[in-house]
Sequence to fold (271 residues):
Amino acid sequence: MNLARRAPALFNFKKNVLAVAGCSGPGKNWEENWKICEMKAPNAFSCAAFCQFADDTAFAFGGFDGRHCTRQSLLLRPSLPYPSSVHSLAPLPYGVKNGVAAVAGDCGERLLWLVGGWDGHRTLKTVFEYAFPEQNCSLKHILPYPIEGHSIAKSSVVAPQKAFIAGGFDGIGLRADFLAMDLRTGAVELIDGIALEKPRENHCSVIFGDGQGNEWLAIIGGWDGHKALADWEMFELLPDEPWLRPTDIGPWGEKPATLATARNRPATILI
Fold:
């Protein structure tokens, strides 16, 4: 990249990767993007929640501007010429960073879920519904525990109405737990008996498929409370509870390698 970045928002637009904003050091948050296009966010930020509808529509919510948790909501459409490709939506009712976002199931391009995060005062245990294009945000559910610095990944095949929330920080310590979200309703429940080997925050989640109806969830990197991590943890997706099964073997048929460099607060996108 043209800038070293921590906690950017990351998108896949027609197999072109777009890294939006992020920070390069204490107080150094960016509005610049990394891609072969001219785009710029209206304000510098890092640590936003982000998600993507399709090849040409994505959202970023909240973030940190170097001093405060922000309320911003951004609509990104890189297929349009700049500045029309970046549009500010109605702000959130609260400032938040280190949350996650997911597109609701069976709702086309109308609903998103905003889960957890830090509002500048406390770690949140909230699930908000964001309606688009109405630009309304309302509280829908309460999580089993407060959480920030967690990750989220959606199943496409094995459990297509589920998203899995992993790890994070609950305001006191790191979590190793998994939560399962029903993307149709936003309801979240703790997955009993399934946990990470290493409690962690600021990590990434991505779900791989093999094209034959199987999927695996990879938990990558992060922070264990003392150091940045380079390892992966793998889980096979199941069509029913408990939804996940730990495994050493991924879709490539062998144990995943560690990252070349330990990373705290990276971003991942599946190509």
The chain has no helices and 20 strands. The longest strand covers residues 16-25. The radius of gyration is 17 Å. Confidence is low (pLDDT under 50) at residues 26-36.
